[in-house]
Amino acid sequence: MPKLIWRLAQVAFCAVAFASPGSAQDINQQAQRDTTQPGRFVIAFSSHVRGDTFLLDTTTGEVWRMAEFSNLKGDPMAWQPMLKVGTPPDYEEMVRVYGTKPPEPQKLKPQ
Predict the structure, then answer these.
(1) Rounded Cα distance, 54 and 83, in Å
(2) CB count, 10 Å around CB of 87?
(3) Tens digit of pLDDT for each residue in 20-65?
(4) Is residue 100 helix, strand or coil?
């Protein structure tokens, strides 16, 4: 068995060592393309605030925020969709769903 493993290692070494330069160049170019083109999803975060981690779908523009669900056992973390308010109807929909807060009572000035 050890002789078989040694022989396979020698064959693998020769295959890598004597590979044509064209194929190595193709692999290098593919690696460069893979690192310069973002994928569909991008994770963005702030180095200043731990809670600001976002997942962006570069195709649809949807954004999710990493959130901890502390009301569940184990406090699991999950991506939570964020609302997009880009137009007045978007804001009206958010008001309809969440409602508005009552006005804060005015503070009396000391006399």
Answers:
(1) 13
(2) 9
(3) 444 555 555 555 555 556 688 998 887 777 668 899 999 998 999 9
(4) coil
CA distance 53 to 71: 20
- Kindly give, in sequence order, each residue whose CB lies less than 8 Å from that of residue 94, ignoring residues fewer than 6 positions away: 83, 85
Which residue is associated with the tokens 């978007």? 90
Q: Angle CA(6)–CA(10)–CA(11) in degrees, nearest 5?
A: 120
Phi then psi for 109, rounded to 5 degrees? -80, 135
Q: Where are the domains of the chain?
A: 1-35, 38-98
**Is the distance from CB of 63 to CB of 48 less than 8 angstroms?**
no
Record the pTM: 0.49
Phi first, then psi, for residue 78 (nearest 5°) are: -155, 160
- Beta carbons of 52 and 45 less than 8 angstroms apart: yes
- DSSP-based three-state secondary structure for 83: coil
Which pairs from 91-100 meet CB under 8 Å and 24+ separation? none
How many angstroms separate the first and last alpha carbons of the chain? 96
